[in-house]
UniProtKB/TrEMBL annotation:
InterPro entries: LysR-type_TF_proteobact-type, LysR_HTH_N, LysR_subst-bd, WH-like_DNA-bd_sf, WH_DNA-bd_sf. GO terms for biological process: DNA-templated transcription. One of its GO terms (molecular function) is DNA-binding transcription factor activity. This is Glycine cleavage system transcriptional activator. PANTHER family: HTH-TYPE TRANSCRIPTIONAL REGULATOR (PTHR30537), HTH-TYPE TRANSCRIPTIONAL REGULATOR TRPI (PTHR30537:SF74). It comes from the Bacteria. The lineage of its organism: Bacteria, Pseudomonadati, Pseudomonadota, Alphaproteobacteria, Hyphomicrobiales. It comes from Methylobacterium frigidaeris. The gene is gcvA_6.
Amino acid sequence: MSVPLRAITVFHAVARSGSITRAAEDLGVTPSAVSQQVQSLELALGTALVGKAGRAIVLTEAGERYFEMIGAEIDRIMEATERIQGFRSVTTLTVRATPSLSTKWLLPRLAGFITAHPDIELRLDGTNEPTAFQKENVDIEIRHGTGGWPGLFAEGLVEESFRPVCAPSLAEPGGLAAEDLARHLLIHSVKSQVQWAHWFKRAGVTPAARWRRLLFDRTHMAIDAAAGGLGIALESDLMLWGDLRAGRLICPLAAPPRITLVTQWVTCPPDHLRHRKVRAFLDWIRHERDAWAIERDAWAAAAERDAEHP
């Protein structure tokens, strides 16, 4: 039996989308046509590739292995075909990052990348879900975490400094002592790698057994709440940068304890590094983070001098 190439591309669409209906929409055919093509591929291979779990479809173990083997190749064939047909005049680069990093740090800088690479069409996918690179059409992910993901290239973006911040209406720069903070409403980012309990310990302060809290599961929401005068947040200067520079947020302590971590990591499968578009993005983001670190350090030094000599 000849290899059913059409059926292979249909199976690839089903496996990538996780849905026969969505695959049919992507391919411009009916769901029944998709099902028939998948069945013809299963017949040719002599094994089941797709099963059902309730109303959803799932890949069998054989289907998972087959998709892993053909996924990257089919993507390359489809991209080459679209270029030849003229459907795609530029190369698409898909970058995944958390909504907070996308909003607070990446978005204000993207104009530079777009200007420098007019032939690259950038797609920014803002989500907290880690990428399954074998199944998803994502080129690079900037992942929040501690690093060390087996099988992935992972480069720390930058060392971040965590500090308390609030609106200028709540306190003056350097106007509070560490022990004063627990008397205010404390804003928590529940997924942050630096929490208030750790900060108080580093500051040598034992707060009351309970303190007033406002909790968010997104960093950008916690930052906006602090800028709105709701309380004091504990956040990374990487995320805070735009609000600190604009004066919407200040640090109410003259000399907060220094807490630094790398929490954002540029990740991708090692074979993605051979793509020009991926290398271009890596070069750009490294330049941006180095320039930002220099600017951040100069600002921090000036802020310390101002706090010491108001």
